[in-house]
Amino acid sequence: MTKVSKKLLGYLSITTGLLTVILGLIVFQLYKPHFVFPVSTNVPVEDPFLIAPRVSTETNSFVAETSEEEPLLSGQTDHLQESARPIPSYTPTPTLPWMEFKGISLLDSPTNMSFKPICEDFQINLPQFQIIPWTPEVFSNGDFDIDRNTVVAWEHLGYTGLWIHSGTDWWGRPLAAFPLQVFLEINENGNMRTLDEFEQFAINCFIGSQVNIQLGEQLVKGKVTAFARVAPDDVEEVSTHTMDLVPYLNEKYPNRGFDLLNPQDLVLYFCGRQLNSEDSNPDYDYYTQARIIIGIEPWN
After folding, report:
1. pTM of this prediction?
2. Contact 175, 88 (CB under 8 A)
């Protein structure tokens, strides 16, 4: 065999190997297995980010989209524990309108959401998503997979909560809450904030932010009135309080605005990362160390 033939054979082998890896990743992304969890009626609904498979642990330097127009809206998950948590059968409270915000249904429409901070002259636009209601199968049937652009709504004590994916997907694309996560966690120098910096920034810049929610053809407005960050050591505890989340947060994090929330107000719930100089929890991965919870009330 000539030297030229050997080189060609080598190049062909490398090319074939790369194509095999790429095709394998594509097939896995399209047909990845789903995890099935038992259903029980004896325990409350728990944090889905403790039972869903995590997707990406890469650091991403995504910068939130900005806009000066008002409103201009554009349109991982997490760690799989060794033993799956049971999920109950649940019926929403029938005495109040279900899954509505300001009288408009949150379900079945492409949804765009943006935040206008009180201390910055720009708008944080989240990637478009669709809100689907909680069911016993929603975390195991693929409907809440990160490639579906979905957000899960659950009702508790008259409040509507939204479980939202943060971080990035397999391909490094930002998930629904990631622009907001970056805004809160990263300082002006591009570094993770400390806990004190995070808390102070949230108080001075984020509480009071205007929220625009475009639900299909309808625009509703809200205002951020409550905020809490659950540190890595407390994630396990808060995950057991999804059905009494607002009262729990009011007791655990007083003076954060949760005592002022009313039924039909909106609660956003997504994962956060380990802050600078903060101890990590080895049971959780890079994107699921903490929980960020935001209360939004109707405005105007």
Report:
1. 0.73
2. no
